[in-house]
Design a protein that fits this description.
The structure is a single chain. The chain has 2 domains: about 5-130, Response regulator (Rossmann fold), CATH 3.40.50; about 140-235, Orthogonal Bundle (Arc Repressor Mutant, subunit A). The longest helix has 23 residues, at about 105-130. By secondary structure, it is of the alpha/beta class. The strands form 3 sheets. The chain has a 5-stranded parallel β-sheet, with helices on both faces. Strands 6-7-8-9 form a 4-stranded antiparallel β-sheet, with helices on one face. Helix 6 crosses helix 7 (about 185-190) and helix 6 packs across helix 8 (about 200-215). Strand 7 and strand 8 (about 150-155) form a beta hairpin. The protein is built from 8 helices and 12 strands. The chain is globular, with a radius of gyration of 19 Å.
């Protein structure tokens, strides 16, 4: 079955160009040009990927991403008309998986779409491997437990709600406990060598993790910053 992509773009010429090229790649594509319609279409379509412009009528892309991220796990590729770090950081913070600054080449957009969909497929395959595991393999660090079988994390016996990439990052840290890991190394191993982004992505996700697993995110004891180097997981 063809993977489904929802394009949310109010500039009609670009919307049609994106739809044409993605359909040529074999994807099922729907288009909308309004933030509120984007919510309605996404809920009905349940797309594998959403290409989401920031500047939209009625509701901007940030708000659309914030709402949809709470409701579904579809990958989100945000489009911004400005090469502005604030736009990129806010996009990541509301749940976008990647971002692309206009103007961009269609070749680059398709490469990013394929990379996001590939990661989504691999994650689904990994989750479906064992339906009824006999025993759970866990990693425990005092009051923090990572259940590798269920892909669940608990703190003081209570579930910690992590996004898929937050879980992958925490597991990577746990598997390299007390090793200094550079941002570039983390980006390559957790996001993949074909990820087109910068190390700021790592910093944003580390901040999210700290807020969820540290007693005091402002004074982290588990995920420690190594000045001039990267991060070290103390457990």
């Amino acid at each position: 079955m063809a993977e489904k992509i929802l394009i949310v773009e109010d500039e009609l010429a670009l919307q049609e160009t994106l739809a044409y090229n993605l359909k040529k790649e074999g994807y099922t594509v729907e288009t909308v040009g309004n933030g509120r319609y984007a919510l309605e279409s996404a809920r009905k379509m349940k797309p594998d990927l959403i290409v989401l412009d920031i500047m939209l009528p009625e509701m901007d892309g940030f708000e659309v991403a914030r709402i949809l991220r709470k409701e579904m796990s579809s990958a989100i590729l945000m489009l911004t008309a400005r090469d502005d770090e604030i736009d990129r950081v806010v996009g990541l913070e509301v749940g976008a998986d990647d971002y692309l600054t206009k103007p961009f080449s269609m070749r680059e957009l398709i490469a990013r779409v394929k990379a996001q969909l590939r990661r989504t497929r691999l994650l689904r395959e990994e989750i479906s491997k064992s339906v009824e595991p006999i025993k759970h393999e866990t990693l425990t660090f005092e009051n923090l437990t990572i259940d590798l079988t269920r892909r669940e994390v608990t703190l003081n016996g209570k579930p910690v709600q992590l996004k898929p990439k937050e879980y992958e990052l925490l597991l990577f840290f746990a598997e390299h406990r007390r090793q200094m890991l550079s941002r570039e190394f983390i980006l390559e191993r957790v996001w993949g060598w074909d990820y087109i982004g910068d190390s700021r992505t790592v910093d944003v996700h580390v901040r999210w993790l700290r807020q969820k697993i540290e007693a005091d995110a402002a004074e982290p004891k588990r995920i420690v910053t190594v000045r001039g180097g990267g991060y070290r997981f103390e457990g």
